What we know:
- By secondary structure, the protein is α/β, with parallel strands linked by helices.
- It has a single domain, classed as TIM Barrel (Alpha-Beta Barrel).
- Helices cover 47% and strands 14% of the residues.
- The chain contains eleven helices and eight strands.
- The chain has helices at residues 3-6, 24-37, 55-67, 83-95, 121-131, 152-165, 178-190, 207-217, 223-231, 236-256, 270-282; strands at residues 13-18, 44-47, 72-77, 100-104, 136-141, 169-172, 197-201, 261-265.
- Strands 1-2-3-4-5-6-7-8 form an eight-stranded parallel beta barrel, surrounded by five helices.
- The radius of gyration is 18 Å and the shape is globular.
Amino acid sequence: MKIRQLYGRGRPVVSFEFFPPRTEKGEEALLATLETLQAVGPDFVSVTRTGAKPQQATVDLVARIRAMGLEAAAHVTSIQATEEEIAEVCDRLCAQGIENMVALRGDRAADRPPAGVFNHADDLVRFIRARGDDFCLAGAGHPEGHPECRDLDLGMTHLKAKVDAGVDVVITQLFFENDHYFRFVDRAVRAGITVPVVAGIMPITNARQIERITELSGNEIPAPLRRDLERVRDDPDAALTLGIDYGTRQCAALLRGGAPGIHFYTLNQSSATRSIFERLQADGLVGAR
């Protein structure tokens, strides 16, 4: 099923994001984790692309996940790719019956210049649409601005270009202050964007880890949350509890405010995500698949 169809059902869509483990043992552990997650009923999962693994690893893992009965989307990055390489990936996805793709430019590597074909995500989306492949395409949105472009108006122009090129669903990068999301959605509506704008959430499981991630991405940690993180910095159990509590409140407020879905960046650590999901289910904010 194409994931764009899920957002027309009149209920919030919940999805989880994973990445291909480095080892075969790690992949088997991830698949076992996914089997346990089927019980709570995510609507779909996505598998990102990592520098440690070739694109084919993402395709293969998505195919295995779909064989388990979970719908899945494959991340495809293009900054270092040629047209021939992207066409090959599309052909592999079609051959596996994979209908959903998260189409991304990808991060610029300081030591490798771009290949020059797909300098922006809308170039990738336009190329895929021109091929005639009937993928459902998700694209990234940046409520606090892209690390390479902090101009929010210009960033919205870039997002509109992706949607006009053929993106079906927008999934935001992580944020911890909900006002960033709601203002982002308001700007998107004013820009004429009508596709679902899904809230991307990263549950906190480790204080130092989330501080490193936000330093790299430039995302804000609100002052009250930063104070709480400092308090549990050296207590992993307390940090996990804090992350689950904060994530539950954040997601509940997003859903009550009209967000069409939550996309959890799990970092392959599903316990916090599952706890948040189950609490949202208990509160009646999300249902089982």
